[in-house]
Amino acid sequence: MSGFAPIRRELETGPITDLPTEAEILTSEVAFHGRVWDIRSDRLRFADAEFTREYLAHSGAVAILAEDATGRVLLINQYRHPIRSRDWELPAGLLDVEGEAPLEAAKRELSEEVDLEAEHWEVLLEFASSPGGSNERIHLFLARGLRAQSSGFSREEEEAEIVPRWVSLEEAVAAVLDGRLHNSILALGVLALHARRG
């Protein structure tokens, strides 16, 4: 492992931060074509070894933590088939429109899912949802200055039964910490906003 010692020294000093690193990709192919996502199979060379990794090739996503003037946050409930559950989560959606910036996608998703628009937007978090198995990156925005707009979007499939609910931030945080809410994006969002307020 000839290159390991200098990297280790770099990681053990200075501010803690992720370190973008490119492994040498020997081959890359789509192992499975899905309706929404594909599974890629990459053969790579890293740390003096060659090995294969399969992962979900994801378009990326946006999520919105909408906060009203009283400090309540908007959660939505919808069915999620992989976990066989109606879970509480934040309005969110894929970065699946060619050339669309994350902020514009967030504005579109807030409108499509809950018929709201917001005057003030800021980045709350950006994170990798499951870096061992997916290249998905999520852009989580805080939206304030909310106003209702007329619904012009036809919701289908799971979105046809979305149930919105405004809750206090404290109630949302307690539900996450009590293990009653399991959606990772929701958990990161409400805990990050709670930390900001704290």
Beta-sheet strand percentage? 35-45%
Fraction of helical residues:
10-25%
Distance between the termini: 44 Å
Count of separate structural domains: 2
Q: Name the poorly predicted regions.
A: none
Strand order of the largest sheet: 7-4-9-8
- CATH architecture label of the largest domain: Alpha-Beta Complex
**Class of the largest domain in CATH?**
Alpha Beta
Mean pLDDT: 90
- Say which CATH homologous superfamily of the largest domain is assigned: Nucleoside Triphosphate Pyrophosphohydrolase
Structure description:
By secondary structure, the protein is α+β, with helices and mostly antiparallel strands. It has two domains: 4-57, no CATH class; 61-197, Alpha-Beta Complex (Nucleoside Triphosphate Pyrophosphohydrolase), CATH 3.90.79.10. The longest helix is centred in the C-terminal third of the chain and has 14 residues, at 184-197. The protein has four helices and ten strands; from the N terminus they run H-E-E-E-E-E-E-E-H-E-E-E-H-H. The mean pLDDT is 90. The N and C termini lie far apart (44 Å). A four-stranded mixed beta sheet has the order 7-4-9-8, sandwiched between helices. A three-stranded antiparallel beta sheet has the order 1-2-3, with no helix packed on it. A three-stranded antiparallel beta sheet has the order 6-5-10.
